Amino acid sequence: MVVVEWVTPEDEYVCTLSRETQEVAKQELREDKNSRDQALRQIREWIKLNPRIENCRLDSQFLLKFLRCKKYSVPMAQEAIERYLLLRQVYHPAFNNLDIIDPVLEDLLALGYLFAVPGRDRKGRRVIVARPGVFDPYKYNNADMCRIHAITYEALMEDEESQVRGFVHFADGAGVSFPHLTLFTPKEAVRIVKNGERTIPMRHKEINAINIHSSVKFALDFGMSLISEKIKKRVNIYTSLNDASNKKMDTSILPKEYGGTMPMKEMIDLWRKELVALRPTLLSHDKMRVRLEMFSEKAREGAVSALKQGFGCAAVGSGDSIQGITGSFRKLEVD
């Protein structure tokens, strides 16, 4: 019998949620001690007996983010975990080596392309700032873009309060032009958005955007067509920061440059410290693996049809080539 050394072992869950957040978890997610303990036990047994999963984290903090995102539907959480592990592996240029001391990630963070502001908004949520216009599409590629998103989201999801309270997104579209839109083909964009919404265990509570130029409105319309109705209702598009402020969007927690009090550079420096502290955890994720040959070719490619049909395993003949999502990335050189 082969003894698996899991990325992290089982642990005894100790609740770190504030009383207020525990109440939110109970009301919105149906979470209490009994449901939590029972679901964790079921998920762990399922992982250990699942022939498709080769290695995974078994600690409560990791598993609860899937259970909370799926409101304690164990089957849905199981599906999300399996899909998450598979996509991390086949999308490996974009999800592995999430190391903040990597020069590319350092550069993108310093530019303020994507970062989380310190503290929380009035509803206890972390706020993520995106500035896609500062991303140089001639210097960086689509995997670089995915990696900075992956390290940001993975780090944020390690926090229990955020797993329950969810996230607010703020995007400034200034500087976005047609070259940015050519980083991904329409097919890649569809697969990334559809898989991301179904797989990344984040509770997206609010999405605000400003400065969307009319020349890229078609891309915005296309993106809106890909997301679920639930998320679509949480999207607010403003013509400018003044327009957003006039329509009562809370700017107090944003960088000083967008109406807050703390300069953006200070926020970025604080966020970098958070990423450095989580560096061992994020790098340990590269040890998680599934057995690719036990998934259908469509599932390995991240095809939307595989999402619609469910995410079970399918027999794959030895003659099948594993193209996977990795093959859809252009301009990648993987050492």
From TrEMBL:
GO terms for cellular component: membrane. It holds the Pfam family CRAL_TRIO. SMART domains: CRAL_TRIO_N (SM01100). It comes from the Eukaryota. Coiled coil: none annotated. PROSITE patterns: CRAL_TRIO. This is Alpha-tocopherol transfer protein-like. It comes from Neodiprion lecontei (Redheaded pine sawfly).
